[in-house]
Amino acid sequence: MLKTFSCLLALMTVCAIASAEPAATFDPTSKVFRLDGGDASYVFGVNSRGELQQLYWGGRLASSDHFPQAVPMPARASFDSSYTNTPQEYAGWGAGLFVEPALKVTFADGNRDLVLHYDSHTLTANGADVVLKDIKRNILVTLHYAIDPDSGILSRSATIENREAQPVTIEQAAAAAWALPPAHYTLNYLTGRWAGEWTLTQEKLDPGERVIESRRGSTGHQTNPWFAIQSGNSDENHGEVWFGALAWSGSWRITVEQDQLDEVRVTGGFNPFDFGYVLHPGQSFDTPVFYGGYAANGLGSASRLLHHFEIAHVLPHRIGTRDSAAPKPRPVIYNSWEATEFNVDEAGQMALAEKAAALGVDRFVMDDGWFGQRKDDHAGLGDWYVNQQKFPHGLKPLIDKVHALGMDFGLWVEPEMVNPDSDLYRKHPDWVLNFPGRPRSEQRNQLVLNLARPDVRAYVLSFLDKLVTDNDIAFLKWDYNRNWSEPGWDQLAPAEQKKVYVEFTRSLYGILAELERKHPKLEIESCSGGGGRVDLGILKYTDEVWPSDNTDPFDRLTQQDGFTYAYTPQVMMAWVTDSPHGLNHRTTSVTYRMLSSMQGSLGIGANLAKWNDDEMATAKRLIAAYHQVQPTIVQGSLYRLISPRNGSEFSATQTVNHDKSRSVVFLFIHSTQEERLFPRLKLNGLDPAAEYALTSIEGKAQAGTPATASGAWWMNHGLDMDEEFRGDFLAAAFRLDRR
Ligand code: GLA
Questions:
Q1: H helix or E strand, kind and range, residue 553
Q2: Of 3, 20, 68, 372, which one's alpha carbon is 20 to 30 angstroms from that of 150?
Q3: What are φ and ψ of residue 218, in 5° steps?
Q4: Is the C-beta atom of 684 inside 6 A of ligand 1?
């Protein structure tokens, strides 16, 4: 076997090229499929009953290793059948299945029994398409598997096809189910609320089912479609981790079950709550993709694999085709929201643009308030024409000014929403999600347009296309400021209406894809009152996300820590705003705020008109320093050295670029207690034999710290901070450059 097991991230491309092994194989004798990528192997086979059974998911096996044909798990008692005990790749609900089914249907004659057996398969470049068929009826399910040769991350989804003569109603459809053998595990998932997203929640797995989900019509702030399961003794840097992320921006559900035999099953896909999709004869139905990966060295290694995978395989590659160069680091933006809220006008925005340009900002974004009769959040959504009082000459003078200042221009939109006080709603009151004769519940004075309707979809696409065609707009901040209520689609027959949960999100993706086709350079941010729509489905079409409306720099440390378990800092927008902060009334320095935000994709969202010369000079200096090291920060390998969680006095992060020639370290003191000094910080991920020069971006290392030392020194001895680095809300940052 040419392929080494220890392909380091830095060498991934080389490893992939050096591999002579096919990523996917099928052994016709044992009927075993095997997928190998990175440091992982995934194995499943057709068992003696004909079911597709999972056999192994974990560290990479030798190519000489072979599995015999899968043997179904026995029934332990008359209460738990072999069918339910056997970890199936995609189990139909039938034959006495008591764990979550991947697929549950009702046939036109009332039959609800579905038992899927292997039918055929095709090997593809990096995976396999495996066709299953019900033992009696013409329902076919094609399971799509692909493994990334670099990271070993699997992409799984299913296509369900009705070849019966009558319609079939799908009541529950997963993208994939994953299985782990009995052991002691810890489940990690991300929870939150508006302005409080990205809490890493950790709990021991016990018998029963843990449901993480959104019933809201979109991804939601409350939980995020990501999980990581650690083996008993795993932590940030050690032990086995199995992780996954669902690429879907509508209502979703991931269940994590420990069954009666202590096996663990993870099943994820459309949320079955209030779900129903009628599949007519000849129709087929695609699920979203459920990504899954294995990491041997703790949660840190899992997130590094995921970050690199997201950059290489999920995010849009705007230059040329999807397979061309990797996404570029994000421009440093200025955003007007916290400075002016709805009170935008030509003179005010131009004044802010001048200040932003003086700081070295790359992109100026005008937020809410520029369109229709928008004075506050009571009116205007839906009327996407420029407000004449605020911009008497249209957007052109402002855009020209922004360009003359050396920046490009971005604009806020909220395309899927309408205020009842709008021309659009007065003309098309039937365009919103609603049940006729029932109340239309407003949130933030707005209703949700039914994007699943072809006429609504056409309207939204055409106004966005016109806006971007008529104006020189490089970037849209695409917002979505409420969840669903009364999700009726009264144009359709009652039995068909629940497909709104699928078709709405497909329409959204369709509009984004069409915009990308027509305006390939247009970049988009996914925002939903902060981090309400962050998932690997929307990230296929959008370049960045707004993680939270909470821009308090101290709160952001914990949020950013949680965010990076699932998502790369490349997409993590982080603005520097004003102090004291409105949410917590906390006062912090510009330096602290800058360094907190510089761990992600930096933006400025403050009222710069109020900043003094010193604050402007500090921000300018730090933006220049950030520009020099940004690719390392946002696309390198991230090490969460000291977590800010659980009331920690300190926190620190480090990133290392792909060839280990550069590293950036951020250190934060929350509040010194009992004169404790910042702990000696042992770095990670460097080349032990190389020499690295230490340069301060902000703050001082302890006197006597070598100007240059080996990677081994920085990782084994570590970095000591100057003892004056004590107090409240302090920050420091360093870069290390290989000599
Ligand atoms: C949402 C966004 C904010 C801002 C406002 C504008 O809350 O998250 O950043 O754009 O809408 O109304």
A1: helix 553-566
A2: 68
A3: -140, 180
A4: no
* DSSP secondary structure, 335-390, as one string: E-HHHHTT---HHHHHHHHHHHHHHT-SEEEE-S-SBTT-SSTTB-TT--SB-TTT
Distance CA 304, CA 151 (A): 9
CA distance 563 to 547: 8
Are 88 and 27 spatial neighbours (Cβ–Cβ below 8 Å)?
Answer: no
How many whole angstroms separate alpha carbon 675 and alpha carbon 142? 62
**Average of pLDDT values for 321-340?**
84
7, pLDDT greater than 90:
no
Q: Hey, which residues does 238 pair with through a beta bridge?
A: none
Report CA-CA distances (Å) from 448 to 434, 495, 643, 695: 9, 21, 39, 51
Cα–Cα dist 291/305, whole Å: 12
Catalytic residue IDs:
479, 549
Distance, CA of 57 to CA of 721 (rounded, Å): 43
Cα 98 to Cα 81: distance, rounded to the nearest angstrom: 9
* 529 Cβ closer than 6 Å to some ligand 1 atom: yes
Half-sphere exposure (Cβ direction) of 486: Cα atoms closer than 13 Å:
18
Structure tokens at 181: 């053998």
Ligand 1 centroid to 546 CA: how many Å? 9
Whose CA is closest to 95, among 135, 123, 64?
135
- Going through 356-504 in order, the beta strands assigned E by DSSP cover 363-366, 408-413, 417-418, 447-448, 475-478
Write the single-letter amino acid at 669.
I
Pocket test for ligand 1, best of 549, 550, 559, 583 (most atoms within 8 A of CB): 549
Do 664 and 654 contact (CB within 8 A), yes or no?
yes
Residue 400 per-residue DSSP state: H
Q: Please name the residues in contact with 5: beta carbons below 8 A apart, sequence gap of 6 or more.
A: 39, 59, 60
Three state DSSP letters for 115-141: CEEEEEEEEECCEEEEEEEECCCCEEE
Tell me the DSSP string of 618-672: HHHHHHHHHHHHHHHHHHSEEEEEE---TT-SEEEEEEE-TTSSEEEEEEEEEE-
pTM for this entry: 0.96
* Tokens encoding 432: 């919103």
- What tokens appear for 693 in the block? 């020069």
Give the side-chain half-sphere CA count within 13 A for 364: 29
* 102/116 Cα distance (integer angstroms): 10
C-alpha to C-alpha distance for 95 and 676, rounded to whole angstroms: 63
CA of 341 to the centre of ligand 1 (A): 9
Each residue's pLDDT tens digit, 534-577: 999 999 999 999 999 999 999 999 999 999 999 999 999 999 99
Q: Is the alpha carbon torsion for 533, 536, 537, 542 positive or negative?
A: positive
